[in-house]
Amino acid sequence: MSDWDGKSKGNLLGYKIFVFCIRNLGVKASYFVLYFVAAYYFLFLKKTNRVTFYYFHDRLGYSRSKARKMVFMSYYTFGQTLIDKTAISAGMRDKFTYEFDGIERLKNLLANKNGGVLISSHIGNFEIAEYFLSDLGDEFQINLLISDLEHRAIKEYLESIASKTSVKFIIIEEDLSHIYKINNALANNELICLTGDRYLDGVKHFNATLLGKNANFPAGPFLIASRLKVPVIFVYVMKEKNLHYHLYAREAEVKHRDDKSLLKAYIENLEWMLKKYPLQWFNYFDFWQVFKK
User: Fold this and answer.
1) Nearest Cα to Cα of residue 152 among 15, 283, 20
2) Residue of 16, 138, 171, 197 with fewest CB within 10 Å of its CB?
């Protein structure tokens, strides 16, 4: 069974604390507060520590001492991305630098006027992509396909203190009405963004190998993306040193309705990113199902 319940780490109070620190201390000074937050997670979230330690020690092959250090640093890095996201959405984009790797793929996609699908993962800080991709022009529009209803409260609060977000949200519905919204967005040359690394019990999934061990992936993103007859691009926005971000865009070369090949390409790309940015995979649940009850 999956231990993920459809809700992400963090809550409305946490975002309010970050906003207070950013406004009164600044971005880098706010990072200092994170040492205490990360220490709390490291000391008291035993279940999360166990699965995160497994990721670093058993899947990435780090020594036990280094893996324990990486667990702490993962929490700290996650907090940094939340502070960055809050600061950028609040109008502090000019405090950050960024670079594009593969931006021409997105430009070509929009030039073809057919829309496209972006597949990402819970690594890095994809939610700030809209602020960097705005350089593509006014026609750029992201539609985020989500099932995490908890984000509604956070989104409403951020909009009350931040510059207005242009991202549209398409909620996954049981009656499949989201399919019509997806098709309408593509007809308007908009982008659909999906994540492929979390699944819920009872939802159709695929089984495949990630970092040397079998795991379950949600089937929906790959079934949908492989059937839409539009380009599919893997996109990640990764945090680097000194308030710098690196956006990666890689086009998937797969045949129509070949969802398994799309999943394979996705996993290969994801593994490359995880090895390059091991601290930035924020999937804090038993992904490989090694701690079943």
Assistant:
1) 15
2) 138
Task: Supply φ then ψ for residue 209, to 5 degrees.
Answer: -95, 125
Length of the chain: 293
SS3 percent helix, strand, coil of the chain, rounded to 5, is 50, 20, 30
8: nearest Cα among 100, 122, 159, 144: 122
User: 133 with 206: CB under 8 angstroms?
Assistant: no
Phi-psi category of 61—alpha, beta or left, where left has phi over 0 and alpha has psi -120 to 50? left
| 215 close to 288: Cβ distance less than 8 angstroms | yes
CA-closest candidate to residue 256, choices 228, 287, 215: 228
* pLDDT over 60 at 43, yes or no: yes
CB 59, CB 288: distance < 8 Å: yes
What whole-number distance in Å separates Cα of residue 120 and Cα of residue 147? 15
Any long-range contacts for 15-19 (C-beta under 8 Å, 24+ apart)? 15/82, 15/86, 15/154, 15/157, 15/158, 16/157, 18/82, 18/83, 18/86, 19/86, 19/90, 19/161
Tokens 């956006």 sit on residue: 247
Beta bridge partners of 194: 119
pTM > 0.90: yes or no:
no
| pLDDT, tens digit (0-9, with 9 covering 90-100), for 184-214 | 999 999 999 998 998 777 778 999 999 999 9
Q: What is the pLDDT of residues 250-292, one digit of tens each?
A: 999 888 899 999 999 999 999 999 999 999 999 898 999 998 7
DSSP-derived letter for residue 241 is: T
- Determine the Cα–Cα distance for residues 67 and 7; give it in Å rounded to an integer: 25
Contact criterion met (CB below 8 Å) for 187 and 229: no
- Smallest Cα–Cα separation from 90: which of 149, 162, 25? 162
CA distances from 191 to 12, 19, 140 (A): 28, 29, 8
* H-helix or E-strand spanning residue 51: helix 46-54
